[in-house]
Amino acid sequence: MPSVPDVLAKVFVCVPFFWNVHKLPTLRSVTEAIDGWPTEVAVRIISNKPERLAGTLESWNTSPSFEAVVGPANHTHPFELTWAHRNYMLDALQTGGYTAFVYLEDDIPMHWHTLLSWAHDNEALEPRGLQRQFYRTEIAPWNGRPYMTDARGYTSLDKAMSVSRTVHLETPTISGHTDFVVLSDPYSAMYVASAAVMHKFAASPQWTDRNSPWSSWGAEAGGEMAANAIIFLDPPLGFWSAGLVSALSKHDNLQCNDSKPRRA
User: Fold this and answer.
1) How many whole angstroms separate alpha carbon 8 and alpha carbon 173?
2) Which domains does the chain have, with CATH numbers?
3) How far apart are CA 186 and CA 212, in angstroms?
4) What's the predicted TM-score (pTM) here?
5) b/e burial code for range 45-58 (CB count within 10 A of at least 16 → b)
6) Ramachandran region of residue 51, left (φ > 0), alpha (ψ -120 to 50) or beta?
7) N or C: which end of the chain has fewer CB within 10 A?
8) Paired strand residues for 46
9) How crowded is the C-beta side of 231, counted as CA atoms within 13 Å?
10) DSSP strand E in the chain: where?
11) Residue-wise pLDDT tens digits, 189-246
């Protein structure tokens, strides 16, 4: 087994899934990616149809290292499931002894090399009050090129990088990265966090108050703030967000597997 960073020794994962048979293939790509992580993992897939999903997960015959437990969630709107994930995160934080917490959407798989890159970079960033984040891309059907979903409107990767603030580390991280960017429109509907950051998140007003400061964003955006709020935990002076992405490692982006582009 390859060397596993201490922060990834025991990982807790939440994935919301509003039942849709047409999205089962993309959900399966997410579970298969997690199944490839060479570490201890527990997964909660939160669904409005837990009985149906439980049978589907059993038919996929995931390996013993992949513990998929469908949590009871009686919700009728997909965005309610994003808020429901916090209950499971909090329980795992208080009782599970987990070292890292991962929140994923149901159509964007995260492979081990991406999680490993997060761990290596976050080791240098977290002591500075910063968080290693990701940018997510989808392929535009009109030109076949990737565009960022974590932006207001269709934005190319190069354009997003060119207008963003950069942060330079004198000493490269284990992954070899020295330069990071704070995106001009910070948005992170998925996250990875250490136990220390999750404790801070759970104790913050960002955790307990759904309406502020997100009430002006509307119901849909407010749903995703259940995850996005983590990057606004006390950013350092001069930063509008604590979340940074690698400026050089574009292979660490997260590619949506959904067949139709949509703004995340």
Assistant:
1) 16
2) 6-255 (3.90.550)
3) 17
4) 0.84
5) bbbbebeebeebbe
6) alpha
7) N
8) 16, 71
9) 25
10) 10-17, 40-47, 66-72, 100-103, 131-132, 136-139, 146-148, 165-168, 179-182, 191-194, 243-246, 254-255
11) 789 999 999 999 999 888 876 554 444 444 455 566 778 889 888 888 888 788 888 8
